[in-house]
Amino acid sequence: MTSDTMSIERYLAEGGKLSAPENTPPRYRAELMKLMASFVDSSLAGAAGFADVINAGPGIKERIAAAKIVLEKIDNADKVLRVMADFGTDTARYANAHPWAARLPRDSDIGAKRTDQDMRLAVFNYPLQGWGDAVVMNLLMGLAVGVQLEELCRVSYQPLGDAFREIAPIERHHVDLAIEGMERLTDSADRAELQASLSYWRPRVAASFGQEQSDKFARLQSLGLRHQDNASLRQIWQTRTDETLAALGLTA
Amino acid sequence: MPRFHDLEVTDIHKTIRDAVVVTLKPVNGSAAEFDFTQGQYLTFRRDFDGQELRRSYSICAGKNDGVLQVGIKKVDGGAFSTWANEDLRVGDRLQAMPPMGNFFTALTPEADNSYLGFAGGSGITPVLSIIKTTLEAEPNARFTLVYANKGVNTIMFREELEDLKNTYLGRFSVIHILESDAQEIDLFTGLVTPEKCAELFGSGWVDVKAAKTAFICGPEPMMLGIAQALKDHGMDEAQIKFELFAGNQPGRAPQRAAAAAATGAAKTATITLDGATRTVEMDAGKTVLQAALDNNLDAPYACSAGVCSTCRCRVLEGEVEMATNHALEDYEIEKGYVLSCQAFAISDKVVVDYDQ
């Protein structure tokens, strides 16, 4: 047994994990809460936006897939909300704290800025326009969430890492559903419309990886809350998106 | 929100010279609230000279032992642990919150799992609960414990571990690593370093490949070293469960007195965030959070409705009033914490800190 002790900060910087709210230093707690809130708000807002297009699905299969995605995104939000509850969050009230279906006009330009209302990623403030547009958004965002979850599974707060590890395969399946949906659309729909949706969503999803704030990243990294910087994550997503679109015979 | 309940001490005995095992019984019909999962802990509170102290101690009983038991090792200068070791008596009442913590994995009776446990000193407490529960709930499970201590006389639960070896013959093994007492096998003397782990893993004493999960509880440097060694031997991060010593929270100074009553509209807020402090003008109708955000301070927040506690900060000077609070407990408010999304300044000047 080693007899020396170590500060929590050094423990975290060297890859240590925390497992209970009682052990989290204040700044760590704040950043962790922010990270969790961002995921919960994005999932709830994403689900609320997608719920509106279920009926736009061209057939029963598509509507089932869309409904399943809505259900599972809310369930994923719940998984993380339960971790927030350990820190004192009133989960029942939280779920109703914001109008999750609210969107800005399609042509607004907010960059990566969040609204003052909630912590959802900026991309979830833009409205979907019909079925094809929703499938495109779901594909691009699903690929982005996949990259983000690979990062988040390594988070130093172990109960949250466990929650994300449960969520990751579910989100991966949503990408599969989006690819299936795209395959049907490329067979039938207007390709120009799909391309237009891709051009609309791709820069907005790219912006969701955040900006290059190296000092902030360094701080989160020293707490074990982040590992790979935004630019690297965005690059992984770009590559995967290019490959996926190429396989579908699309560009953007 | 978790609440404190009364528990009666029904038994107390020493496991080593400076550690006691306390058996507790919920009173006032709160037994159901104390139905725990292996590896969880209880948070106690007690008043010491007018100041409330809260300390967490892990449950050492197995889930099906039918008792609620915690192990409390005396810490140098630790008010609560010293009191529990010296003055606590059978029949006394303690106050504790229902069990909390996530240091466990789900058990499957029909599974054929192999587990590893690593404990340093009193870090054995939650690991013991896990070992007892797992071996009983999974009749095919195997468990190997590596237990680090200074010497033979500081091994907590030594007899209990021997009994478990006999009860679960062939399924449970313990390797005692002693810092200062020599043992027959050289490998078992010294510190549990990454190098020591590599030797244990390489020589067949500990089978990392077969293990489903490793549970580690001990001093931070030891945990880091073991986790590294496990990863070097092919274990995935997701298979490694850590538990820090609970009850390691730094003492907090009492809240300062609120300043004199306020007048006028324009107020100033001095805000500390990420180690930097700035003083900003604040509209009487704006919250502390809004004042921070308006001045491009990256203050944490989420719900903006007083339900999530993301925006929590501490008032060091001045007085604020919260419009609503569904997230902070009374003891946090007593210490000066507020939800900044709900906090309006009452005094002309407020000083808040997000880093405390």
Automatic annotation (TrEMBL), chain A:
Gene3D superfamilies: 1.20.1260.10. GO terms for cellular component: cytosol. GO terms for molecular function: phenylacetyl-CoA 1,2-epoxidase activity. Its EC number is 1.14.13.149. It is an enzyme of class 1 (oxidoreductase). One of its GO terms (biological process) is phenylacetate catabolic process. The keyword Manganese does not apply. SUPFAM superfamilies: Ferritin-like. It holds the Pfam family PaaA_PaaC. Keywords: Oxidoreductase. This is 1,2-phenylacetyl-CoA epoxidase, subunit A. It comes from Thalassovita autumnalis. The lineage of its organism: Bacteria, Pseudomonadati, Pseudomonadota, Alphaproteobacteria, Rhodobacterales.
From TrEMBL, chain B:
SUPFAM superfamilies: 2Fe-2S ferredoxin-like, Ferredoxin reductase-like, C-terminal NADP-linked domain, Riboflavin synthase domain-like. GO terms for molecular function: 2 iron, 2 sulfur cluster binding; flavin adenine dinucleotide binding; metal ion binding; oxidoreductase activity. The lineage of its organism: Bacteria, Pseudomonadati, Pseudomonadota, Alphaproteobacteria, Rhodobacterales. Gene3D superfamilies: 3.10.20.30, Nucleotide-binding domain of ferredoxin-NADP reductase (FNR) module (3.40.50.80), Translation factors (2.40.30.10). It comes from the Bacteria. PANTHER family: 1,2-PHENYLACETYL-COA EPOXIDASE, SUBUNIT E (PTHR47354:SF8), NADH OXIDOREDUCTASE HCR (PTHR47354). Keywords: 2Fe-2S, FAD, Flavoprotein, Iron, Iron-sulfur, Metal-binding, Oxidoreductase. The keyword Nucleus does not apply. It comes from Thalassovita autumnalis. This is 1,2-phenylacetyl-CoA epoxidase, subunit E. Its EC number is 1.-.-.-. The keyword Iron applies. Residues 2-106 form the FAD-binding FR-type domain. Residues 267-356 form the 2Fe-2S ferredoxin-type domain. The gene is paaE_2. Its cofactor is [2Fe-2S] cluster; FAD.
